[in-house]
Each structure stands twice: as C-alpha cells, then as structure tokens.
Amino acid sequence: MCATRSRRQSARSSTEAGEPAEAAARPGSGDALGPRVIRKYPNRRLYDCGTSRYVTLAEIKQLVMSGTSFVVQDARNGQDLTRAILLQIILEEEAAGVPLLSEAALANLIRFYGHAMQPFMGRTLEQQLQAIADWQQQLGDVSQGLQGPALQAIMGEYFQQSREAFTQMQNQLQRQTEQMLGAFGLKL
To answer: How many independent structural domains does the chain possess?
Structure first.
C-alpha cells in the first residue's frame, strides 16, 4: 500500500480530490517486498507508489517490457485494476500501428467467451505465449553464434511445445464430448 492507514486517514481530503498523500518510496515498489503498487485515482491519473510520481500508460508498458512485477489498484477501494490497464495498453497498441491480432483472431477469441472451452483456451493461449517468449529469449541468447543446427533445435523445441499443447486441447475436448454424450446415454 502507498501509505499506512493513519496517513491515509489524515490525508483523506487530498486523496478524495484525486491527489496522492505519499511522498517517499515505500514497500510495494516492485522489489523483494512484493509487486510495485500503482494507484488509479478518480481523475484517471496513475500514481506509482514506488517512485512517488504519476506515470503514463507508456511507462506501465515499459514495466511490462522489463518484467517488473506490479499491480494497479483503485485508489478509492483497492480493487485490482491490473487486467483493465493491461487491456487498455493492448487496445492502444492495436490501434496505433500494425496490429498483432487480426479481426479474425479477435472474433475467434470473442467466440470462446461463455463456451465450455473458455478456461482451457485461456490456459492454452497462455502456454503458447510463454513458449514463444521462451523461444524468443533462447533465440536472443544464442543469436551471436546462431547457425543451422542451433536454430533447428530451438524451432524443434517450440514446435514440440505447440504440438503438446494442441494434443492437450484435443484430449480435453474429447473428454468433454464423451461426458456430454454420456449424459444423454450416447457414446462416441
């Protein structure tokens, strides 16, 4: 938290006006004490409790890019707004230049909401994105002396992970189909 309860109570009037009561770095600055805390105030401004200053979405994007752990909280009630801020960054990036996600990909994502496969699809996407990030890291680590066999090994590992994730998704779909048909007394 940016301030202790007593400091928060004594500075309530300035906080309600949309201004933070903090002036110095405190726990929650993204170090060993936990993730960096960023407060979102009613005036839509974002305040980084670790650096004691207002930040922009571009600066939060840099935290993501650098791998800094952070959480965005509503200054009034402490609600976690991290996902909403990350989605806002994605929206701005998608609108700014060459989009990462095509209209077809976005439409397919929307179709999974409310579908029985939604939880599994989320995990699969997360695994795939992590595999790509790992692959990118490996590629960067060996790019100085990268030659054919090294590149093939990295690509092979990525494709193996992709194949395993797809197989898991197929098996999950198969189990769910069998369960659904079994409820009606049918078999595959």
So the answer is: 2
- Residue-number span of the structural domain to which 46 is assigned: 5-96
Express each pLDDT in 20-44 by its tens digit.
Answer: 544 333 444 455 678 999 999 998 8
Q: In the numeric block, which tokens belong to residue 95? A: 């609108």
Residues 62 and 79 in one domain: yes
- Residue corresponding to tokens 């797809």: 166
- Contacts with 73 (C-beta within 8 Å, 6 or more apart), sequence order: 37, 38, 39, 40, 79, 80, 81
Measured CA to CA, the distance from residue 13 to residue 59 in angstroms comes to 28
In angstroms, how far is the first alpha carbon of the chain from the final one? 54
Q: Structure tokens of 29?
A: 């600055």
Rounded CA separation 132/122 (Å): 15
pTM over 0.85: no
Read off the pLDDT of residues 50-74 as tens digits, 9 standing for 90 and up.
Answer: 999 999 999 999 999 999 999 999 9
Does 69 map to a domain? yes
Closest CA to 41 of 73, 13, 71, 11: 73
Residue at 188 is within a domain: no
Point out the least confidently predicted range of 18-32, 112-126, 165-179: 18-32
Question: Alpha helix locations (H) across the chain?
Answer: 5-10, 12-16, 57-66, 82-96, 103-112, 118-142, 148-183
Q: Are 57 and 122 part of one and the same domain?
A: no
